[in-house]
Amino acid sequence: MKMGLPQKIWIYFLLILTSALVFFPVLYAFMISFMTGPEIIQGKFFPQTFSFENYTKVFSRLPLMNYLLNSFIVSASVMIGQLIVCSLAAYAFVFLKFKGRDFIFFLFISTMMIPWEATMIPNVFTIRNLDWYNTYQGLTVPFFALAFGTFLLRQHFLTIPKELHEASQIAGLSRFKFFWKVVLPVSKTSLVTLGAYGFLTTWNMYLWPLLITTNQSVRTVQIGLKQLQSQEIATEWGVVMAGVIVVIIPTLLLLFLGQKQLQKGLSKGALK
Amino acid sequence: MSTFWRKSVDARTAVLYLLPSIILFSVFIFYPMFRTIYLSFFLTDQNGNAAINVGFENYQYLLSSSEFINSTKATVLFVLYTVPIGIVLALFFALLANEKLKGIGFFRTMYSSTMGISVAASSVIWLFMFNPSIGMFNRLLSVFSLPQIQWLLDPEWALLSVAISTIWMNLGFSFLIILGGLQNIDEHLYESSRIDGAGYFYRLRRITLPMLSPTLFFIITISLINAFQTFGQIDILTKGGPSQSTNLIVYSIYREAFINYQFGTASAQAVVLFVIILIVTILQFKLVEKKVHYQ
User: Fold this and answer.
1) Among candidates A1, A112, A256 on the partner chain, residue whose Cβ is nearest the Cβ of B194
2) For A104-155, how does the pLDDT look when each residue is reduced to its tens digit (9 = 90+)?
3) What are the residue ranges spanned by the domains of chain B?
4) Who's near A174: CB < 8 A, 6+ residues apart?
């Protein structure tokens, strides 16, 4: 059934107004990143010229390239680590029969009730005792196991017929081959969803890198932003905003590109 | 023996496949949780080793500390400011973006955009907008000749300002989850109600919201937990000030542990945080159970 024209206009009006309000801060930061100091003080919205001066400045004041690379390595590692660890566990929960399965499943659930911040004090000492301060493994390994990720994949694995597993065993396929050649390929959408989620949350992580990076060697962009903001605040907002834009572009792109896939995954789930 | 070996192949494989998760959970979640509870009964040295057993003194100290009471109050207020408004806004946007109109994909992208922006980046943007002399908010106020506000510097306004920015930061995620929930509602439910000539708000109240309630429960729980865990925006926007008005619990734990090196009292605060989140989670489970029973 179709809605009337006045109703349509009304909804478009609300859509345009509210989405513009939501996106405004980002757009504003983008504009500021091209402005000179006086322009910012005058309170303009559009810069006089779109010159990349602030961008070259931010790259020269901060090892931003280095930080970006670190963030990329850390996020990609956590993403891959989570996909491996979670898919292995989900496979065991769905396809293997063993004693104590319910108990272990309960253990997994219980990890979701423990806020990460409540455990950070001993974790920092663990990292120190392992000598993992300022290392990639210190930034990544603690996040490889994820109950949420295991459940997400388990949900998808459950839709694979059990008979397929039995048939493949009769055909002489090893358990690992079945996992690798059958289970993973048919679960692509869930793996992509979990991968995007893992990358995004790791890229945006703030407190943990703040605690265990004490120098620039493996520091991530988020901590770089804090550094930039405390250095430059009084003087050059344009440079700070250029840094902000550089940091948010990768995740915004990932979100914009992945949104369709996400939508598809969601509507597929609805058809079940 | 060999048949036992063959029969147990599933169990042995399972151990192998679950081992990475179990080891990581043990080292980075279960052990530190018990260690935190243990440390909360001790005074510690600078390296975080338990030194003197003080029983419940750390907890007694917290209950009598105006700093901690203030931090708890601020956290509860912050949760009340951010969660209800955040969810109502996300629901409103999701309802708009669920209409089948031309170009709706563009609007969905706009609404979900804040999910792709880190807490650190968002905080820096809002820090600028709250700036008393060149920020946008005070410029707007002066356009309408209203008195200027010292947003992040005024103890009366700082918590509210951080809350406003936090609502914005969480909007994208809540929006995507609620939109997903809306798209899972069976179209046929609406078809039959339209024939009866039901109005938009009637359908909203009678079909959409009830069908959406599991999703809403889920996002309310996640939002509550997230609000209790707030840290990044405090560190960048206010550092817990002015006069501790924004010293939320995780920031307070961070300061007590890694700036004051009081690991015992910091651990006691961490245990309090754990208990709060446990209660929220259990309440959620109970409520959902109840709902399922009634259906």
Assistant:
1) A1
2) 999 998 898 899 999 999 999 999 999 999 999 999 999 999 998 998 899 8
3) 65-294
4) none
Nearest CA in chain A to B39: A122
Contact A99, B11 (CB under 8 A): yes
Of A125, A146, A14, A127, nearest in space to A79 by CA = A146
Global pTM reads: 0.89
Question: How big is the CA angle at A113 (ends B84 and A105), to the nearest 5 degrees?
Answer: 130
Q: Which amino acid is at A69?
A: L
**CATH class for the region spanning A63-232:** mainly alpha
Chain A, 188 to 217: residues with Cβ < 8 Å from chain B are: 200, 203-204, 206-207, 210-211
> Which residue in chain B has the smallest CA separation from A223?
B120
φ, ψ of residue A52 to 5 degrees: the values are -95, 20
A129: which chain B residues are within 8 Å (Cβ-Cβ)?
none
User: Residue B275 burial by CB count (10 A; 0-12/13-18/19+): exposed, middle or buried?
Assistant: exposed
Choose from B27, B46, B125 for mutation: most chain A CBs within 10 A: B125
Q: Is A86 on the interface with B (CB under 8 A)?
A: yes
* Span B65-294 CATH architecture: Orthogonal Bundle (1.10)
Task: Report d(CA B95, CA B114) in Å as an integer.
Answer: 18
Task: Please list every residue in chain A whose beta carbon sits closer than 8 Å to the beta carbon of residue B194.
Answer: 1
- What value of ipTM does the predicted structure carry? 0.87
The domain spans of chain A are 63-232
Distance of residue A151 Cα from the nearest chain B Cα, in angstroms: 13
Closest CA in chain A for residue B271? A118
Q: Is A76:A68 a contact under the CB 8 Å cutoff?
A: no
Q: Please compute, for residue A39, the number of CA atoms within 13 A of its CA located in the half-sphere on the CB side.
A: 15
Question: Inter-chain contact B113–A255, Cβ cutoff 8 Å?
Answer: yes
CA distances in angstroms from B136 to A1, B220, B239, listed in the order given: 44, 31, 22
Tell if the CB–CB gap between B257 and A121 is shorter than 8 Å: yes
Q: Closest by alpha carbon to A43, among A27, A54, A32?
A: A32
Structure tokens at A29: 């930061």
Neighbours of B295 (CB within 10 A): 5
DSSP 8-state code for residue A174: -
pLDDT of residue A162: 84
- Residue in A with minimal Cα distance to B281: A113
